[in-house]
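Work through this protein:
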Amino acid sequence: WWLYSHTATKPSKMWVNPEEVLQAGALWITERANPYFILQKRKGHGDGGGGLAGLLVGTLDVVLDSSARVAPYRILYETPHSLTYWLIAHGSSRKEITEHWEWLEQNLLQTLSIFENENDITTFVKGKVQGIIAEYNKNHDVKEDDDTDKFKEAICKFRKLFGMPEEEKLVNYYSCSYWKGKVPRQGWLYLSINHICFYSYLLGKEAKLVIRWADITQLEKSATLLLPDAVKVSTRAAEHVFSVFLNVNETFKLMEQLANIAMRQLLDNEGFEQDRSLPKLKRKSPKKVSALKRDLDARAKSERYRALFRLPKDEKLDGHTGCTLWTPFNKTHILGQMFVSTNYICFTSKEETLCSLIIPLREVTIVEKADSSNVLPSPLSISTKNRMTFLFANLKDRDFLVQRISDFLQQTTSKIRFEREIAGSLSSSDDEVRPCLCHCIVPTATQALMTMYRRRSPEEFNPKLAKEYLKEQAWKNHFTEYGQGMCMYRTERTKDLVLQGIPENMRGELWLLFSGAINEMATHPGYYEDLVEKSMGKYNLATEEIERDLHRSLPEHPAFQNEMGIAALRRVLTAYAFRNPNIGYCQAMNIVTSVLLLYAKEEEAFWLLVALCERMLPDYYNTRVVGALVDQGVFEELAREYVPELYDCMQDLGVISTISLSWFLTLFLSVMPFESAVVVVDCFFYEGIKVIFQLALSVLHANIHQLLEAKDDGEAMTVLGRYLDSVTNKDSTLPPIPHLHSLLTDDGEPHPDVDIFKLVRSCYEKFGSIRADVIEQMRFKQRLRVIQTIEDTTKRNVVRTIVTETAFSIDELEELYVLFKAEHLTSCYWGGTGSSNPTDRHDPSLPYLEQYRIDLEQFRGLFSLLFPWAPANSAHSDPLAQRLFRLLDHNGDSLINFREFISGLSILCHGDLTEKLKILYNMHVMPGKCACVRACVRAYVHVCTYSECWAASLTSMFVPTVKKLQAPDYRNYLKLWNRGTKNNLENVKDLPKLNQSQFIELCKTLYNMFSEDAQEQELYHATATVTSLLLEMGEVGKLFCCPTKDPEEEDLEDPGEAKPCEPALVGGAQPGSVYHERVQGEGEGEEEEGEARPHGPGNGDSGGEQLSGMEDIRLEDSSPKDTGTSSSMLISDDETKDDTSMSSYSVLSTGSHELDDKLHCEDIADDTVLVRGGMPHSTSVDKDWAITFEQFLASVLTEQALVLYFEKPVDVAARITNAKNVRKAGRPLLSTSDYEIFLSG
């Protein structure tokens, strides 16, 4: 204890838990040593590289994944009189390791000499290092995680090699080869949440590759004779091939998953967040698998589980195990897998279509272990409320499984009981508080619309009704034998019944069952009614579109020819739009929903629509119908595979893309007769999207000869339209409904009738080999292509919109857009100190120009790289970036879009002198926080204007003061400016005036802009000249205005406060005269007392009357006068009456040269700086001093150096290239290019 308490600790991340090292000298060079410790450096690291031996060592470190590549320095503890060494610290730089070495010498060497036993020394050193690590973890709140030490080393390498911040989470890494040309480079592939990275070091040649997942356009696993297991990663710019994987399937699945996450971010802002509740399924995880990788594996399994059993989106798989299920209908044990999740127990047979089962825990009453026997080893019995019992056997870890199910069952029971209590308390309170408002409950349709509008003629339909009755009996017999409701055994017999057609009065019930919508409806009682009530009477873009399409929804059906059906359709669509504003409403939803309402109750139709939009047809009904476009691509792939002779012809005609959208979005409801299309919907709810692909291929195959003979797309569409019009349902008991969905018709012979049931049977026979998992694989491939195509289209549209507004070329605008978008994405990946939410900055539903926006934090990064005025010093650059950002943020939402960004950059790069100076001037007029000037002063100042000839006299008055600093040709510049800006002079005059605080900041900006410029000193002298000239203008301008006191503010004055005197114009002195006097002494009347006061048009004095050209301008103060600080003031100028006049302020001052003492330029040996002096800071701002933009512009034009600086051309291409290169260098923000390759040596 004594030794620990008297030895200072040095907490650091470089200490490591002592590890035994067998050979201290192998591949290491000893640099420092003492009796107990050795400091070593890895061979090949640092200057010189160690020759050939160093190159070999570096190569071995990379290939063998050695930590020495990241930590080339280490400290070993040497056991006295022994060859045993212990690694106690390592570091990435000499500075780090030297600090640790010095600490050891100062704190431990003397202590270790006290020990006599060598074992005690070793024990003490190891304990001390472990104590330092523990203390560091405690002080820095370092929490233990599930990652192994080996993986933590990989994380350190990843961050160091690629310059990644801690926010970038590494998922896994793999050994592989990267093919650069014809040469493979052996190295390591790092897969993180947002990037795929590769690193190789072979004999002095280093290769780095960084690709954003969001930039990948294609990801596929390829197999060739040369590369049997290769993964090809494609971006817009290049293709990259990786091979020689130990497990290519595992690697590729993870790459697919991470690319999918990135596409989801681009699509709708659903970024990845590590879900801590995901279970760790593997008890013994491989050494190199991270906790994040295990969570991602669990997420992927949960997604497949939900898709297989049509479960709600938030259901998470807890585990699965092999077992057998006793099936009473055929009295056999079926081998399969049991899946257990939070709310469900599911089973699927090993033979895919043999049997499947879904048991909601809300239906379970008893879970018990049955007695084991040779016939039934480790059985488990589960009983449900509808008196069904399910017997599972051959369960591994049965006791553990029963415990997990019991825990979930208890949670489910508690949740149901709690919801009932809440619902009961709410209903009882409603009865007490609102007993008379029961009739105000939102009306909803309590039965399917078909039951109200079914018109039957018994004489005509008796044979069909008899067949319908037989179908109903077949389903009832099926329910008796296989069970009814969610717990029904689903077998081949169930599928056969569906293909024969679901009876009319059972459709709603079975659609709910097969789609899984029944689960969400059962677990959300009252949800739909609440949603309808909240959405009633509210209007937005979605509701407007809904109203427009209501009467276009199945108008031929009598149910939608009156207000009852229309009202139900309106409620369902509006409720869903409010439930899911990301989708809102999309055309085609009305057609599908109207059919749902015919066969299901209103609430059931709503939940069927939820299942359709959010699970069964993902992303179909968003604003860009991404899901339908993805499946269109899948359909093209399937057509190429299954009808290859037709594929090329259809592609040439462009028919596939035309037909597939209408077929898929409405599930054939818009292209087939209604009574036939509902049979397709039956199959869809049972089988999913694959039946739609099968049916579409069957339609093409049935018309293959006619399509091959078609000369154009119109003829091909006519062939398909006539065929689909002829698809009939002879078993339908519905009265004939006029078919309004046909595409194109001609005068030819009508197509022979096609029986819908035969068509469905044939599609299963010919194309039944299409598997759901294959479709999902194809969807992933097409999703990459579709979303990247949408992103490219967005970029082109944005560029096309603004290319006429700027002088940038199309290529430059596209490059800038990529940089702009990359800044947004990087902030989404890694966050930052900014207050804006990434999801607020990206909204795909907005117009193209508004989809990506950046806040001030991201703008600062782009400003320093692209804008020509950005000072090299970030301390000076940040305030200027903030001023420009506020100027460009037209709507004041603290975000700027690409157009606003380009408008500012275009002026600074391509604008003329006046435009550049105007934006510089406006940047300092705007109100905001400044580093030096923080308080605003409220004052109303009366402005006088004077003519251009008087301005010339005023300029001549300044000649003695600034003559030695003037450029000789400033008058020519004035003339040129006058001619060039005559048309825009009125706009220039609208600019507000600059007060003293703002002028000071403007001067500081000018001085900071010129640092590191080749003409730095000359520019500083020119700025000093302009500053002096403007100071005199502001001072002299105060002589010609007479402020008065605002009566309202007069009462606020402190009676004991000394009142300074105000100036007054002498008699009838003309504006051109320089013989004006200041009146010092007592003021004459109330109007001359106190500080500068507002002078309204109706309160003029004699001075104001003489200066008829005066205008009012207002200086607003946002802070108390006694704060002792000052800030910029917002000044607005009314429209002037004299187009050629210049303006000056009439202000109160104690001396005409006061500013000379407060603001002057001091020329130092190597630099010129702006110095504030004179009066104390709290009183250093002259509230009455001001200049106009015309004065600022005219003054700058007098200095050739400044004119040349602002007119200097900007090499935009070089700046863009530099910005991309800076990002490539592994800075905190990553490259904007699709990929990066660094080769050296």
Q: What stands out?
A: The chain has a mean pLDDT of 75. The CA atoms of residues 369 and 560 lie 54 Å apart. The longest strand covers residues 170-180.
